[in-house]
Amino acid sequence: MESTGTPTGTTTGAAGTTGAAGAAGVGARALGRSGIEVSALGFGCWAIGGEWSDGEGNPQGWGKVDDDESVAAIHRALDLGVTFFDTADVYGAGHSERVLGKALKGRRDDVVIATKWGNVFDESAKVRTDADATPGYVRRALTASLSRLDTDHVDLYQLHLSNAPLDRAAELRDACEELVAEGLVRAYAWSTSDPERAALFAEGAHCAAVQHTCNVLEDAPEMLALCDERDLASINRGPLAMGLLTGKQGSRSRGATGDIRAVPPAWLRWFGEGGVPAPEWAARVEAVRDVLSSDGRTLAQGALAWLWARSPHTIPIPGFRSVAQAEENAAAMEHGPLRPEQLTDIAKALAG
């Protein structure tokens, strides 16, 4: 494995302070109370895992990917100041971690890596087979992730089972504390949208964050309040509503493309059968489009700017599959957060 030092995680490039755009940009953010600093924007690595499925054959990825393009996009993100990359062992049944490890070879000290555990999968068959919330599985899962990522530690290790039993969670938290003590993990978190579960993990000394759904269409005031109270990073999954807030979805169907949005599970409310944006959510996007895309931003950049304005703890992690997407998302840091009056206008538009 590639030996690692202590990542600096500082923000450069697109989030720098050179020129008028940089002066108005958003700077680095703290990863909760961990002492780790990351770029205000992270990159979510679910999509670059490629195609995989659950035990019933339903797609769980975002369709086919080009690994060379994924690596090029990660390199471009690094050039533009992105230092935080979030993946999971199950994404692509291990493939996302392998691609990320390959892309970061020789750059490990420049980045902060987050991954997740809790799902059991068959890497060769590209199938998720089960879940395991036992303390004994944590170490086995981490050992496998370290090998795929080609590193000797993970900066942020996250429980990926959003509804894991509370009576088991304290044991899992304690298992994470052991991994921190051994230097295999720097900090840990729970990927859950339940504030009660997040609060239980936050009782651990080295819990630094919670990963939860939050975007301009689905605010999370209770979770953001918890992050403020406990000094946790709010890592925002779905910051672009899985593409709905990019303005590039339209009304087209995705068909059977190996894309989870084509056969959306119950929790994926933003899309209907075939990947067509659900009308009620599409209408909400239209209601806020003008505000989000003002001041020279694209719609996606405005959605990220809303999150930065919403709380000083937020770190959105939009997905990507191409260099162009990496560039557009990273450029959002140049514009910085929305202004208070723009937040007010959006709240009024969504309440109307």
Task: Describe the protein's architecture and organization.
By secondary structure, the protein is of the alpha/beta class. It has a single domain (13-351), classed as Alpha-Beta Barrel (TIM Barrel). The chain has helices spanning 19-23, 67-79, 95-103, 135-149, 166-181, 195-202, 221-230, 279-292, 299-310, 323-335, 340-351, and strands at residues 29-30, 37-38, 42-44, 84-86, 112-117, 119-122, 127-131, 154-159, 185-191, 207-213, 233-237, 314-316. The strands form 3 sheets. An 8-stranded parallel beta sheet has the order 3-4-5-8-9-10-11-12. The protein has a two-stranded antiparallel sheet with strand order 1-2. The chain is globular, with a radius of gyration of 19 Å. The termini are far apart. Mean pLDDT is 91; it is low at 1-23 and 250-256.
Which descriptors would you attach to this protein?
352 residues; alpha/beta; TIM Barrel; eight-stranded parallel β-sheet; two-stranded antiparallel ribbon; 11 helices; 36% helix; disordered N terminus
Give the topology, please.
Elements: H1 19-23, E1 29-30, E2 37-38, E3 42-44, H2 67-79, E4 84-86, H3 95-103, E5 112-117, E6 119-122, E7 127-131, H4 135-149, E8 154-159, H5 166-181, E9 185-191, H6 195-202, E10 207-213, H7 221-230, E11 233-237, H8 279-292, H9 299-310, E12 314-316, H10 323-335, H11 340-351
Parallel strand pairs: 3-4, 4-5, 5-8, 8-9, 9-10, 10-11, 11-12
Antiparallel strand pairs: 1-2, 6-7
Helix pairs in contact: 2-3, 2-10, 4-5, 6-7, 8-9, 8-11, 9-10
